[in-house]
Design a protein that fits this description.
single chain, 760 residues, alpha/beta, Rossmann fold, Immunoglobulin-like, six-stranded mixed sheet, 24% helix, 32% strand, elongated
Length: 760
Amino acid sequence: MPSRFNDWRLTSLTPLPTWALALAALAAIVAVVAAARGLRSEPKRSRKGVLLALRGASALLLIFLILEPGLELLAKSPVRARVALLLDTSRSMRLPASPGGASRAEEAARTFDAMELRTLNDRFVVDAFTFDESAQPANVALLGDAAGAAARSLGPRTDMLGAINQAIRAGAGRPLAGIVVVSDGADNVDLHNGLAPATREALRKIEAPIFGIAVGAGALKDLAIEDVRVDDFAFVRTNVDVDVTITARGFPPTEMPLTLRREGQLVAQTSVRLGGDTSVAHAKLSFVPDETGKFAFTVSAPVFEGEAVAENNRRSFVLQVIRDRVRALLVVGRPSWDERFLRQLLKRDPNVDLVSFFILRTAADDTHAAQEDLSLIPFPTEEIFRDQLKTFDLVIFQNFGFRPYHMAQYLPGLATYVQEGGAFAMLGGEQSFSLGDYAGTPIEDVLPVALLPSSAPGAAMEPFAPRLTEAGARHPLTALVPGAEPNAQLWNALPKLPGHNLVASVKPGAQVLLEDPARDHAPVLAIGEFGRGRSLALTTDASWYWSLVASGAGASPRAYETFWHNTIRWLVRDPAFTPMKLSAEHERFAESDPIALEAHARTADYGASAGSRVAVQIVAAEDGHRAALAEAVAGAEGEARVAIPSLPPGAYKATARFSSPDGTKELGRADDAFVVNSGGPEITDAAPRPELLRALAEATGGDVVPATAAKISRFAYRDPRRVEIGERQVRPLWDRLGTILLLAITLGAEWILRRRWGYA
């Protein structure tokens, strides 16, 4: 046998299937049995034995030839089992292993001593992996790099069971002697609630021990805001509850303050009583939002001396504040058809909370009765315009003159209300605009039109048909039906109005949506923005014609309802009516994720603002410091995308400023809020969990040792005996002349003897 082969075995080279071999063997047995039955009358046992022996030998030789036996020569070598080394590189490994000490990652790296690795490599094939929420193959030599260990520990989650399964599948059939897991045990994917029975059963099937090296098992002092629960959205002027769960480890019993801030502004605070050792406390923070929008909130607790992690003492979230109902104030100078239709419309609208006042008599009216005998109440000017004004989303003056009620002192406050985000509408009539003596007052400052002096004619009384302007044809406020052409046809079909108030001009930046074409394009409906608020001027007191008169003429009365619903939505800044928009790709980003934002730029008349410049500034919501700045140019549809590299954990406010393509004119702005998470569950629960490593070891027959005493080459690895065949050679044994001659001899001898002894 050649020296390169060190083992052999017999094999069959026949191409015949098993069933054919079975038939051949059965035929041979039948032949021997038939011969024995034919020799039952033979008196001489010697003759009988010779003939049966020859028949049996022939049958065996025939089976030998059919099986085609051969000799398989083998070159065998022993297969070394493998050991899988798994190093935890999740975010929690950057935390200190002990108070004031090195990081857990650095302590873990020191367990991979070069001498220990060489000793282990002499016995086994060593496969190295790093893992967080998945396992990645690694260079064994790099595992002991303590200097770079903390820098590599960035994984957002820890999935030990998944990493173990990946390491097993990576073995390519090589027997597994053991698995070494170097970790703080802080699993937060599969094993955060411990080992389930099904998991224990799956671990037993591994048939290899798991050895745990526990990192960071020292005492930990840490305070963490573990969870913040709040609804996805809230209603303005409605109480919001924020439920907070706080976990404290290593603290004596103490009282801890807890604050809630909206973009740096304190909105709620409370205190929480913490117990000793490890304790869990719950707190509720409540506040009432006073404006709509998307805001970033931060719940924070103080950072105490000696804490392992400072980042988990705060947690941010984004809250969308919307209107439950539009709170509207309608003030009317005197009863009229216009007042009746509008008040009934607002009362029927479930989305409007209406407070209305209309004047039945003035102080100058002669009632011929004592004041105490009248049931009518005085107009509550101070209560409405000083105490309650900010509680309204919308204020409507409908044919209302302010002078009889001594309201001049309240007009500056109403103008400030608009500048600070309120909505105001003035409707036409003999007590509105110039006829109401509003020229030169603070109210004129927040109207989209400039007023005529009181000496000029204040109204045009000729019937007219209002016409859409170019801006009105595109604006959603005047969209009574979908489609530009059907909408224009509907406006043209509406009845004429009996007249309207006259104004001096339209202010810069304001838009005219409806005009009187017969009086030099006099504004009928104009809108504008002032500060953070919006205002509207409707110079007619006959919009009710679009309902009652239109219905009498056979047209649809719904134009009136649609117009006023659109008007209210635009005035209170319904998101669907906002021309400029900015939205973050996610409300929450991971610490290492790039920040992507989408900007939508439209002109004031809602056409796509192609080519406009978009400057996005991101500031930290806590202190207002600028965190990033990016610029983009809007495409053909007015859309632009900006991407900003990753930001530190915290809450952020993004503001987009839109300007004309040449940068000389500001078109508008929009904002959004988002949060960058601070390590997620890896930071929220910073405590090491050696008991989890111990459970893995017990389920597989392994062991757990602290990192400070770990000797990875000395674990009791399983060493399964297995060899692999490197080379083989087959030599046939059946194709020899002697075998054929021997079969011929046995068959011939039996035939001759049977003839001689008288057998056929």
